[in-house]
Known about the structure:
Layout: E1 6-10, H1 18-26, E2 30-34, H2 37-46, E3 51-54, E4 68-73, H3 78-86, E5 91-94, H4 99-132, H5 141-161, H6 164-176, H7 178-194, H8 207-219, E6 221-227, H9 232-238, E7 246-254, H10 261-270, H11 274-280, H12 297-308, E8 315-320, H13 323-338, E9 341-347, H14 349-357, H15 361-366, H16 370-382, H17 385-395, E10 400-403, E11 409-411, E12 413-418, E13 429-433, E14 436-437, E15 443-446, E16 461-466, E17 470-473, H18 478-485, E18 488-490, H19 496-499, E19 500-508
Parallel strand pairs: 1-2, 1-3, 3-4, 4-5, 6-9, 6-10, 8-9, 12-17
Antiparallel strand pairs: 7-19, 10-19, 11-18, 12-14, 13-16, 15-16
Amino acid sequence: MQRPHTILWVDDEVESLAAHVLFLEEHGYAVERTPHGDDALALLRRQPYGVVLLDEQLPGRRGLELVGLVMVTKSEGAETMREAIGIEMDDYLVKPVNPRQVLSVITRLVEGQRIRQQRVARDFVTRFRELEQRRGARLGWREWIEVVAELAQWEARLGQGGQEGLRDALASLGRSLHADFAEYVRTRYPKWLQDASGDRPPMSPDVCAEFLAPLVRAHGKALFVLVDCLGLGQWEVLRPLITDMFDVEVSYYFSILPTATPYARNAIFSGLFPAEIAARHPEWWGERDDESLNAHEAELLAEQMADVLSPAPAVRYEKVSTSAEGEELLRKLPGYLAQPGVTALVFNFVDQLIHGRSEHAILHEVARDASALRSLTRTWFEESALMRALREAERRSVPVLLTTDHGSIHCNTPATVFAKRDATANLRYKFGEDLRAERPDTALLVDDLPSWGLPQMHLGVRLLLALSDHFFVYPTKLREYQGRYRGAFLHGGVTPEEMIVPVALLTPRSAG
Length: 512
């Protein structure tokens, strides 16, 4: 068992360390001294230490992975510093050192994480009170983005520190905002569509025109990456992994409703609402609600780019759903990025994970909650074809626009609905005749589909959109659906988690 308050100091002049040792002992540390590296290794085999101060350079970190290592040397040369970094020292001190310097380094290594967690907790408690006061306030779309983005950032920060009680408080605050957000969307969403020139947020059809087109216009080329179903919380844990390659500038937009791939992703690639896509391309849009509705994304993107840019740029499009497709993409990508125009990539891993989680017990266990889902997404991303594609773009100084089509929400509450047999099978939204929810507070009902940007269907068809963490069940299959889908991550409904999503401009650091 590691003793974090025990220090091992390896120095061939151990007699000169008495004052330093006394100072550290006064601050709660037990210090053992040895003049030789071989003796130090023997001591380390017998018992671990919180920090090892090394006057001699041991070869690498053999057996010392869990120990804080600090090189203490008389050399101020750059080569010595580089060597310390190369063998993965945690810090570096140049003699003569005073006791407070040593204490500062040891405190950072031994207690730094706990101190940081305490600071995060204090900051969160203060900010939590301020955020709670905004409940029930009449927020505009900018304020909603501000609040929801901050909640996602806190979610990621608290998740790193294992602050269970604070995370529960944060989750409770997020849920308390759902009713206010649903009412805001119910009253504002149709107005946004009726007056496109008014004060409305960027929405799915605006992503390419507002964010991608200026990038292509300025640089002649761009990599456009869409990760299906990447919520703000997941984005926050991926973001630190790319900041060494790119300067990251994050904006946000509202996904259209339903927050589902056939609607939201088509709207992004076409620059149109679903009703407009159906009017322009009736042969591509029917009443079926499945993946076939996304079969023409490449054509829609090329058409939109020709509308907003002159001359029309070349458009290359790839969809990645398997590791084999990822490897094939990476073979093509250098050639794509060498050419002007837009290279568009769609990655389906997160969406596949979320859907597969409801079907497979192992996935359900490893992605049991929002924190685990974020962790799993990060693990995938680190070794993914997407990460390798981003490295290739950075190496070639190609700017990247990275976004998603919608987020998801952890659903735990069944909501009974009544419908005819023709109703669609989705769990967070349904089209059908005579649809109604047993409890009106569980769903938003839309009778006038065109006013919500959706194609008019046959007479009597209406839309139900799930609110908060509800998922739809029929009275005849109540137990089956409860057992199968309680705790699932779903999308298609009306929550900030599903609707407010990131769009990030990644500028390669190599370009600077």
